[in-house]
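Bench log, entry 3. Co-assembly request; chain sequences pasted below exactly as received.
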Amino acid sequence: MDKTQLEQNQQEKPISILNKSLLTGFVGGMVWSIFGALSYYFNFTEVSPASFLIRSFWQTGWTSSFLGEVLGVIGVSLISIAGALVYYLALKKTNGIMPGVLYGGAVWGIIFYLLNPIFAAVPALPDMTSDTIITTICLFVLYGAFIGYSISYEYHDLNQPADGDASGK
Amino acid sequence: MDNQQETHVMSRLHDIEKFMDEQVGIEESFDVGFRQFPILGRKLNMYYVTGLVDTDYVIELMKELMEWEAEQPRTRKVFEGIYEHLVHQQVEIVESMEECITQLLSGLAVIFVEGEKKAFIIDVRSYPGRSPEEPDTEKVVRGSRDGYTENIIENTALTRRRIRDGRLRHEIIKSGTRSKTDICISYLKDVADPGLVKLVKEEVKNIEIDGLSMADKTVEEYIVKQGFNPFPLVRYTERPDVAASHLFEGHVLIMVDTTPSMIITPTTFFHHVQHAEEYRQSPVVGTFIRWIRFIGMFASVFLLPFWLLMVMEPSLLPEPLAFIGPNEESSIPVVIQILIADIGIEFLRIAAIHTPTPLSTAMGLIAAVLIGQIAIDVGMFVPEVILYVAVAAIGTFATPSYELSVANKISRILLLLLTAFFGVKGFTIGFTIYILALARTKSLNTPYFWPFLPFNMKAMMQILFRLSVPLAKVRPSIVHPQNNHRQP
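Structure output for the full assembly:
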């Protein structure tokens, strides 16, 4: 039984966890930045994906339109591929959902604290409302959990199928 | 009830009668029947449970034996002779009294022959039950109308009618020290994950209880450790076609005797959002139905808390949506109104389950017209509250899985309270916790929120779009099928 299962999995390997991870990164970036744009629309946050990627660099009228938000979402999705790659290289062997959550929190810290000066359209951390901070942390945590859990699950699923069966509940 | 010690069948009928009287209470229980008649100078004791045997067959069996006796054949092989004259395809010879009793109480007839240390068990069962009907909760416009019944034998037959494959396995396990309920584990031998089959079998074998009166539910609670998680960790179906399609996908089914609900394992959240009807319509229509349903389900959880948030902080609303929110003031806070209305709908739903049909019309009338309208007229409720609570309630009813809809309702109330107390922060944190809680749930080692989290592109596409059957070439990876391709 183990043999057939292993062969099975070796056949599947060529689809490559790396590609799947990058795809996960793209989709994760898209899904959660759409939620980000929505929470900007409903004024949960003062910043949207577009504030970072579009409005910080171009201040023309169209940037605050719907088009600006769409471009912002696409931009985040592309950058998120890099986020997934980092997770894949560094943390793919972790287990469960917590590492992803922490990763999301860390990414939030980097973007909102360390890189904050780069983004002209984003207010400094002390100037943000608490709603903005909480909402964005939540979104980044969800994003981190999404790519983190997906990548590590895929990794464990393809590499240690027996482990998945015997690990108990 | 100690099953460990085995008693050998006794050769003296007197001992047997005493034993049976002690164990089953032939004298006391009126439903256990007993008949003695002579054959070739020996005596023959037959035991049966009156309600569970088919009288015609029992008469047929006795007639044959009595005619044989009337011929007065010259043979010494009485036992073998009787065996040959038991006109039935399922005759078994056993040597243990305990087995005789179990089988007797399952509805089989037991025959003891004087002077023999063996007994015959003849399958003359005929259980009281209904014939297959379309299940109430899984109706379709077109397609097969048969549904599982309370009889496990009929249920295996309904499955076998759809899968005439020698590799379909129906393994039977008895469980419950008093009820001795039959539990059948069905899977395709060369498709289902052997690890999962083993796990399910072990879990079922480890059930230690006197009786499984709530059949499927009892088994479910033993095999998945639910804890405080309100979400349904297994999917039930009463439709043989749904069951068969899951078997083809590589799922393992658990059938429990006395229930029409099959347990499908492993289950994910998204199994609960599908319905047979989608697969009866063209892919586009199926996809459309599914999207509408997703919207309904999403609304059933998030619409009310979101609206409450907008009422609490109107400044959040973007310009085009500024009209949302109550125009008139009410003396009761909106969150209390929502909770009262929601609980009112819950009253109605609970009451509807056990209200007989003739009365339910009256009940609906009272609920809808009197309470709804008058609550507004009196000034208890703002009309908008009724609107949003009603939309959320309809969303709940649009959820195909009843269990999931109730779990979502609980999530909605928690989310409402969080929003009421903490505003935007409560809502976003509640949303995050809802998603993460679903994601970290596991049902039989299977991530519950798969394929969304952990993400799987191919499977997610199949959830979002109902693909036509020829396009769905591979089995879902979540069941770890041994054999990935559906089309050989």
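The first strand of chain B starts at residue 32 and ends at 39. The mean pLDDT of chain B is 89.
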